[in-house]
Write a structure and sequence with these properties.
- It is a single chain.
- The chain has 281 residues and is an alpha/beta fold.
- The protein has 2 domains: 125 residues, Rossmann fold (3-Layer(aba) Sandwich); 142 residues, P-loop containing nucleotide triphosphate hydrolases (Rossmann fold, 3-Layer(aba) Sandwich), CATH 3.40.50.300.
- It contains 11 helices and 10 strands.
- Strands 2-1-3-4-5 form a 5-stranded parallel β-sheet, sandwiched between helices. Strands 7-8-9-6-10 form a 5-stranded parallel β-sheet, sandwiched between helices.
- Helix 4 links the parallel strand 4 and strand 5.
- Helix 6 packs across helix 7 and helix 9 packs parallel to helix 10.
């Protein structure tokens, strides 16, 4: 259960926000002074803090600065009146993850907290993927990273062809860690593991692919082990590659395969960039 601290010199606001958060299954504590909040942060592990900007003995900026020095992983959302919106925006430059204007609406608060916590989780995943590829010297590897830079810049799809152990999956992680979608989900759809279920029967991986595509909205979908499949799956894949709008729900698709180019029956060539075996090795 995520733990949230509410800091506001108005006790009524603290108790109201606490009641809202408890109903959303958060563990919530309150503090009516910066000193009390600092002591609670020292004694308890908090995932997120809701902090008012204007308080009698100290402003939210000094508390925000203290938090970032004490534990930079704690998320802070600043609460402010409409007249202080510019001040709240300034607080984000100092490390706040977001701000919310008073009077606070419950649904807006829930969404901001949910978005902040998801962002934090995705950032942790991104850090695991940071610099997954070793950069040897030479013209071939220069071409590889030039191609990857193009894919990152254009949000284009990519087909990576290479033998097992040549770093195809690392290519997807590399792209994810550097593109605009690195705060969205990273979803893997492995065709090898989707073909058969535990009873050895064929599974409907067309439906599973659609589920994975929906889960990856706003992020990256890694389709591993592309192989010859039925026309239904080919149609779904081609549609996903060619008909998406590049909006907030756009899914960048990276496809990997160990098959030779001439063995693939998919007509995806016009829809993706390629890293060929001689390049990815």
């Amino acid at each position: 259960m995520k733990r949230i601290l509410i800091l506001d010199d108005n006790l009524t606001i603290c108790l109201m926000l606490k009641s809202w958060l408890v109903k959303q299954h958060y563990q919530a504590d309150t503090a009516i002074s910066v000193q009390e909040a600092q002591q609670k942060v020292k004694n308890e592990a908090y995932d997120l803090i809701l902090s008012d900007i204007r308080m009698p003995e100290a402003d939210g900026f000094s508390f925000l600065s203290w938090i970032k020095k004490f534990d930079s992983d704690i998320l802070v959302i600043m609460m402010t009146g409409y007249a202080d919106i510019e001040t709240a925006v300034e607080s984000m430059k100092l490390g706040a993850v977001d701000y919310i204007a008073k009077p606070i609406e419950a649904e807006v608060l829930y969404k901001k907290i949910d978005d902040a916590l998801k962002y934090q989780e995705n950032q942790k995943i991104t850090e695991q993927f940071r610099d997954p590829l070793i950069r040897p010297g030479g013209e071939i590897y220069t071409r590889v990273f030039d191609k990857l830079s193009e894919v990152v810049h254009d949000d284009s799809h990519l087909l990576v062809i290479g033998d097992k152990g040549t770093g195809k999956t690392s290519v997807a992680h590399y792209i994810y860690s550097r593109s605009r979608i690195d705060s969205g989900p990273f979803v893997t759809f492995d065709l090898d593991s989707q073909v058969l279920n535990r009873n050895g029967e064929r599974r409907d991986y067309e439906e599973l692919f659609l589920q994975a595509l929906d889960k990856a909205k706003g992020g990256l979908l890694l389709v591993k082990n592309l192989q010859k499949t039925g026309i239904n799956f080919q149609t779904l894949l081609l549609k996903a590659l060619s008909s998406q709008k590049k909006d907030d729900n756009f899914v960048q698709i990276i496809i990997t395969t160990g098959e030779k180019k001439e063995q693939l029956s998919f007509g995806i060539a016009p829809e993706v960039s390629r890293l060929t075996p001689e390049v990815i090795h």
